[in-house]
Amino acid sequence: MKIIPENELQSNAWDLAQLSHAHPSFLQSWAWGEFQKQIGNRVIRIAVGNDSNNIILQAQAIQQSIGFGQSLLYLPRVNLINKQLSTQDQTTALSLLMDEVKRIAKSSGCAFVRIDPPTLDNDIASNSIYKSLGFIPNPKKSIQPQFNQFLELGTDLDRTLQNAKTKTKYNTQLGIKNYNRGNIQVNTTTTIDSIDIFLKLINTTSRHQGFTAHSDNYFKNQISTLTDSGIAELITATSTDDPVGAIFVIYFGNTATYLHGASNPNYRNLMGSYLLHSIAIQHAISKGLTYYDLGGVHPNPDHPWSGITRFKQGFGGQMIKYTGTLELPISQFKYSIYRLINNL
């Protein structure tokens, strides 16, 4: 085994290796790395190859500022454990990869390495490996949600939503009826033709709900890069040219992921949000995917996400809990200062 030089890595081989995992994440896809470059982040791709130079373990890292001239190396939803390998090969590959990650982090002046792997909280064996590598849990820092709502896809929409709540089924049927009657017009695109509708809705939603949205430039780069790569689509709904709703969905591996969404409260009665998710679910089914990831939720009914959690759980499925954020100190002094500030 050896580290494959980064300049020899290619997008097709990279994604093909990602897709060999049981639950590959689009955050480790080549396209996501290209998007990160578009918004000015440094992206490092690290891969361990076998004797045939095929990738057997990989990590896409993003160098991010943490203020005061300091930075970290972030590996979003990275899968550091290839369970398809023998125990010996798994250990060797992981050792090679982590040595390279730490070397790059140290040479780049990073205070620590952060991961939030697609590992379930109750996966004792995998979590023991992270602990043995020196990773420390940081429950106060969640970049990716620790709880996600997963819907297993059936052969059609009805079978997929057979365990949905009665209200969700009714609202979805009403949204479809409004579409069939011409009360809602839907545009599914893999270009940025509908970006203005999306931006208008997301900015209105952020003001209405009191959160800070990403910049328009962030969304434009993301939608453009990911749709051009063929792994995403923007679905918008309008009524007599007025924006009703929009969702941005990623199709990668065996999972469709609902990444962003926004709706116009003035057209709530048309049930556009339910319609848009039903369309995305049907697209995922047609692509032969297994899951529809509705994104972050939270089990605490007093959490700020309680409303969106009720909406997402209305579709049925299962709430899963990931391990959460783990951090590996590179400079113990800098990391101690960071955690002190973080705790305060």
What is shown here, in short?
With 344 residues, the protein is α+β, with helices and mostly antiparallel strands. Helices cover 38% and strands 26% of the residues. The chain has helices at 11-18, 30-38, 87-107, 124-132, 157-160, 166-180, 195-209, 216-228, 272-286, 306-313, 332-343; strands spanning 2-4, 42-49, 55-67, 70-75, 110-115, 136-137, 147-152, 185-189, 232-239, 242-252, 255-263, 291-296, 318-321, 326-329.
Q: Could you characterize what this model shows?
A:
The structure is a single chain. The strands form two sheets. A seven-stranded mixed β-sheet has the order 1-2-3-4-5-14-6, sandwiched between helices. A seven-stranded mixed β-sheet has the order 8-9-10-11-12-7-13, sandwiched between helices. β2 and β3 (55-67) form a beta hairpin. The model has no long low-confidence stretch (mean pLDDT 93). By secondary structure, the chain is an alpha+beta fold. α2 (30-38) runs antiparallel to α8. It has eleven helices and 14 strands. The chain folds into two domains: 2-144 and 323-343, Aminopeptidase, CATH 3.40.630.30; 147-321, Aminopeptidase. 38% of the residues lie in helices and 26% in strands.
